[in-house]
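Re: the request from the purification team.
They wanted to know what the chain is likely to look like in 3D before they choose a buffer screen. I agreed to run a prediction and write the result into the notebook, where they can find it.
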Amino acid sequence: MWMYIAIGVCILAVVFVYYPIPPLTPTLTAWKNGGNFFEFRTHKIFYRVEKGSNKDGGVLLAIHGFPTSSHDWIKVLPDLQKQHSEVILFDMIGFGLSDKPSDHDYSIMEQADIAEALLKKLKIAQIHLLSHDYGDTVALELLARFNEKKTDLKVLSLCLSNGGIFPETNFPRPLQKLLRVPYLGAILSRLSFYGIFKKGFGDVFGVNTQPTESEFRDFYAAIANNHGYRINYKLLGYIAERSQHKNRWVGGLQEATIPVHMIYGPSDPVNPSVFIDHYKKTVPRHSITVLPPDISHYPQWEAPGEFSKAYRGFQQGLSAKGK
């Protein structure tokens, strides 16, 4: 018996030291080839600039969620291009095709700094924001800076989607809770193989809106790229940050005078349907689109048609008001 235990421990030790990175899928390779990298404080950050067909629609910055990448927007990208003159997408540090340093303290503040640095590099001074999940919190930090006039960036509008913007209505998944446990999180991150990932990730999609096998592989390749599995537990610091900066981020949303909209999939186990009433009570001036009941945490992927329709309606409403 002890021999088998020793063998198991040795196997786990080998995995802990080194776990081979799965290659990028053809889909992710094509996505990478269509983009570029820029350097932020010695780290390479991936981004894409997509030309739009609406010259009067302004520039859109789309900010992805945890634990995935800018590729999350691919299903709604064609419609976003119809609404805007340009669509900017990027992988935040620690995500997707960007660098994932292991000796790094990841924070929402730094992710907002990266967004500002990218827009400055591209010489973009005013933007519309579209965000999801973790990206919602980054967008709220950009909004707070705009409200305080502590940025040169002008935010024209904000559209959020299925993010834990209110700590009291956000319920992290069981694995996320385990990953936040000191020392244990580092070990579990190393042991997150494809099968474990697929089960946990599939749980945040609707029963009838699951990714295909090839799509699961694409998501996993983006996460595992650059040894991403080693640092997933470090990225989860945002959960504590949301509580720490609640007054700043929720308060900034309450004080916002720009147009704000939420697109919400109500079958979300991370942000369940109690979110709807809380949103309406907390930010009554801002609008919300509640998608069909079977849509869950990734509405832009699960229901791209409905998501695009909701976003299009929001943007057209801005045009009617003269933005």
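For the purification team: The chain has a mean pLDDT of 90.
Please add any questions underneath this entry.
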